[in-house]
Amino acid sequence: MAKKAEYFSCLECERNALQELSDLKSPHIPKIILHNENTLVMTPLGVKIHNLQKEDINDIIKILESTHSLNYVHRDLRKYNFICDKSGKIVVIDWGYCIKTDTDYDSSFAGALKCMPDEVLSSIIKKKKIFYSPKVDLVCLVRSFYLMLHRPSLTGVPFNKNDYDDISIQAQYILNFWKDCGKSDIWRNIYSAIDDLDYNRLIQELEKLF
User: Which residues does the UniProt record annotate as the domain Protein kinase (predicted)?
Assistant: First the structure.
């Protein structure tokens, strides 16, 4: 339920996306039961996760491959946007900031800064238009997974997301953090699979971490 009118557009975006994505008939995408201007009622119910399981990797990447084929980019893949339903299936939630890459989409920043790809962080720092592609989702997923695995301290510089100069400072801090992380061969192979947009190889490389 949106408590402020400024979030109505996010609900509308999520409703439109989930209605179209329902054609995939995937248990890993929420389904809308009822809605009005400020409310979405969805299924399934789920609980927050703290770590991803091996089978979750395959399920998430496969559903991303399907949604990307329909030109959707989630833009906000992070730990808090994955839930586990009562049967143990992973569900990707919070599609309110998603965009369709085949439209004139909103290129402003959306999502969790700490999971963003270097290209997005650099665009924020340089105050340039952000280009969102399927690779953004895959990097966000991988970096979210990395943070779940290693739980590094990312206190950084507090920022106000409405202050672009301030968010640029934080983006630089996060960019520097990722320059020093994930430099082993296995992580290089993971990022190589993302660069090639090879979903199956990405699954194989990530599963090696289990």
Answer: 1-210
* Residue carrying structure tokens 């309110």: 96
Give the total residue count for the chain. Answer: 210
9: three-class secondary structure by DSSP: helix
Say how many domains are in the chain: 1
Contact between 87 and 46 under an 8 Å Cβ cutoff? The reply is: no
52: in domain? yes
119, 107 contact by CB (below 8 A): no
Tokens 């439109």 locate to 16
Tens of pLDDT, residue by residue over 185-208, are 999 999 999 999 999 999 999 999
What long-range pairs does 175-181 form, CB within 8 A, spacing at least 24?
Answer: 175/118, 175/121, 175/122, 175/125, 177/114, 177/152, 178/118, 178/121, 178/143, 181/146, 181/150, 181/152
CATH of the domain at 185: 1.10.510.10
> Is residue 122 situated within a structural domain?
yes
List the domain range (segments joined by +) for residue 135. 46-208
CA dihedral 112, 114, 119, 120 (to 10 degrees): 30
